[in-house]
Amino acid sequence: MKRELAELVKGQEKIRLWRSGRHLTELRMRKTTSAPRKVPPPVSYADVDAAVEAMGARLAELEREGWVDTGAGLAKGVLPGTPAARRLVTPSKRKKKAAASRPSLDDAFAALARETITALERSSSDASDLATWKKAIAAYKVLRRRAGGSPTENLVHFFAVDGVGVERAHEVVIAKVKPAPDRFARWMKLLQAAAI
Predict the structure, then answer these.
(1) At 31, which CATH number?
(2) What domain range includes position 161?
(3) Structural domains in the chain (count)
(4) Sheet strands (E) in 11-79
(5) Residue 124 binned pLDDT confidence (cut-offs 50, 70, 90)
(6) Angle formed at CA 3 by CA 61 and CA 52, multiple of 5 degrees
(7) Nearest C-alpha neighbor of 70 from the set 79, 80, 78, 172
(8) Same structural domain for residues 93 and 130?
(9) Could you read off the pLDDT of 130-181 as tens digits, one per residue?
(10) How far apart are CA 51 and CA 57, in angstroms?
(11) pLDDT in tens, 55-113
């Protein structure tokens, strides 16, 4: 299983961020401490691509906060902290081609808006509305994480105001469905609760 490691420093603190398959682990420590450290449990993602994107987003965030990459990295089978740890080589051309052929996040946001509109137009009860919204909100949070933002960032705007995506706007679900006032009020409460 291929592993990736990034090591960043800021003053006397050090962060090790490593990915093993679809799992991402972040460990903070002081550079001067030699005491054994407790490694937190990894965060698991749906697939390797999502974990790689999450690691890239976290590295970018840490660098914006002033952390400096030390150039440490891991090769296959090398454990964090061993002398054999070395910087990971760039992704293969095959992986780059696969990433280029995947639909963009804006395409995924557009598909989510279309699917939600279709499901809500077909919905005939509050229970089916609720199920549709739960599914749509969960999908939105996954896409927003992949875009590098907070999972609830612009959630209400996307579904109810202006259809904000990553680089372009999309169909506004509530404006397209045009629900009755009581149905509209229930949907807005649901979206506002999910955005907290």
Answers:
(1) 2.20.140.10
(2) 103-194
(3) 2
(4) 13-20, 23-30, 43-44, 68-69
(5) confident
(6) 40
(7) 80
(8) no
(9) 999 999 999 988 888 888 888 888 888 888 888 888 888 888 888 889 888 9
(10) 10
(11) 878 877 877 888 777 665 543 344 444 443 333 333 444 545 544 445 688 888 889 99
Q: Kindly state the average pLDDT of the residues 7-16.
A: 79
The pLDDT value recorded for residue 25 is: 80
Alpha helices (runs of H) in the chain, residue ranges in sequence order: 48-64, 93-101, 105-122, 126-146, 155-156, 173-177, 181-194
List the structure tokens of 83: 């002398």
Task: Give SS3 for 135.
Answer: helix
- Say how many Å lie between the first and final Cα of the chain, rounded: 37
**What is the per-residue DSSP string for 180-192?**
-HHHHHHHHHHHH
Residue where one domain finishes, among candidates 100, 121, 145: 100
Residue 136 token pair: 């749509």
Tokens of 110: 């557009």
Same domain, 73 and 150: no
> Rounded CA gap, 142 and 46, in Å?
9
* pLDDT value at residue 37: 61
Cα–Cα–Cα angle for 100, 103, 104, nearest 5°? 85
